Amino acid sequence: MLDQKLIRENPRFVEENLSLRGKVFNISPIHKLTLEKKDIDIKISDLQSESKKLSKLIGLEISKSQNNNSQVIHELKDKGNEFRTKIAELEEKKRILDHTIKKEILSLPNFPSKDAPIGKDENDNIQIKTWGDHFKKENLKSHLEIGESLNLFESKKTTKISKSRFITLIGNGSRLERALINFMLDIHSKNGYLELMPPALINSESLQGSGQLPKFSNESFNCSNDDLWLSPTAEVPLTAFHRNEIINTELLPIKYVAYSPCFRREAGSYGRDTKGLIRLHQFNKVELYWFCDPSKSLEAHRSITADAESILKKLNLPYRLVDICTGDLGFSSSRTFDLEVWLPSSKSYREISSCSNCLDFQARRSSIRTKIDKKNQYIHTLNGSGLAVGRTMAAILENGQQLDGSVKIPDALVPYYGSDFIKTI
RNA sequence: GGAGAGGUGGCUGAGUGGUCGAAAGCGAACGACUCGAAAUCGUUUAAUAGGUAACUAUUCGUGGGUUCGAAUCCCACCCUCUCCGCCA
Prior knowledge:
The chain is 40% helix and 21% strand.
C-alpha cells in the first residue's frame, strides 16, 4: 500500500513512479478525495473539541444545581444535540470517503525500484548470470515422460479425486518430494532461518496484508462459508504472523523459512503447461521470508536471493539469475530477481524461485512497524522461494536422466532420498 | 455442539454514566545515597493520527446504538479460558 499522505501531497511523484510499470496511472481522482478527507478530518476534530468542552460544562452545571431540568441545562443540551448532528453528518461523509480512498489505494501496486530495468514485459527482463553445466543432448525425455516411465506421479486418475491440474505423487516420486522439502528446510535452518509451519487456510485480512486482495481474488480458492482462503503462498501467512505489531528493532532481521502447500486457481492460464509438474492448482513450496530494518533491505535482497540460489547449487542444477523489468514486476514488489532452472528437454529456463523486495508495501498494508529514533517506521519485507518443490523435482528428473532410463539423484540429496538413483521398480 | 466465565496501558489489576486516558502494584528509565552495587528514597513512564511546535482528536476486544457526555448501559460479532460431548 502506498502512503496516503504521499498521494495527497505529491500526486505527480506517485503517478510518475507507478507509470514505470508501463501503464498509465491517473490518481487525480484519489488525490482529490484525500484532500476532501483531510478537510473533513479537521472540521470533525474541531467540532469534537467544542462538543467535549460543552459536555464537561453540562456536567459541572448539573452538579452545581440540584435541578437537572433547569432552563440553562436544557439549552446547553440542545446545543450539544446540534453538535452531535453536525458531527454525525460529517462522519458519514468521512466514512464513505475513507472507504473509497482505501479501496483505490489498495488496488495500486508498489513503486518499481529505480534500480530495476525499465521494460514492458518479460521479454525485457535482463539475465544477470548463468550457473552450471547445461545438459544439451538431443532426444532427452521430458520430466513428464520420465515420471510416467518410473511411475513417480499420476494426473489422469487424479482428475477423479479433484480435477485437472492436480497430481498424485506415487512411491519414489512422493519420497523424492519429501526428501526435497526436508533438504531445503534443513539447509535454510542451518543458514539462520527459523522454521514455521503456518496454516493453509487464511483469512481475507491476511491476503489483503500481503497484496493478493482485493485485486486478485480470482487467483485464490475461497471457502466462502468461513471467510477463509486456501493460501496461494506461505508469503501470506508469514506476513500476517506479525500483522499489527511493533517489532523491537534489536530482533531484526527476522528470517523465517516455511514449507507449505500452495493453492492457485491459475485463472487465465488455460492451455499453458497443462501436463506435468510445472503448473498445478496445488504444489509444495519452501518459502524464505525476511522482516528487516528499512535501511537494510537492499543488502537483504541480495542475501535472500543467494540463499535461494544455494539450493540450486547444492543440487547441481543449472540455472540463471534474471532481473525482472518494471513492467513484469509483481504487484507488491519493487524489485525482483527470478531464479530460472534449466530444463533440458525443452532447452529452456523455467522460473523456480522469485525473490522480491517489497520495501514497506506489505508492512504498511499489514501495519508492521519498528521504533527508530522514537518514531514508528514501517519495516521492509522480502520473500523468496527456496524453492518451488515440484519444479525442483522436474529439474532433477530432466537434468539427472540416464541412458538406461534411471535418474541420478544429486549427491547432496542422497542422504535425504536414501539412494543414488531412481530406477524402475 | 452444550453450559459457564472473561477480554482495561509493557505486565498484574481496580474502575458500573460527568476533569477517567484510566487507581494501585510490578516492570522500565533517570536522579539521590554508595568507592561501586544491592536495598532504600525521589521523579518520570500508554499508544495512534495530524501539526515545526503549542496543541487537537481518537483508542479500555471489534462494530453499531442510547446519551449533552460511555471503559461503565443496550445490541451484534470476534477472541480467550474452564467444564461436558465429539474427534486426528
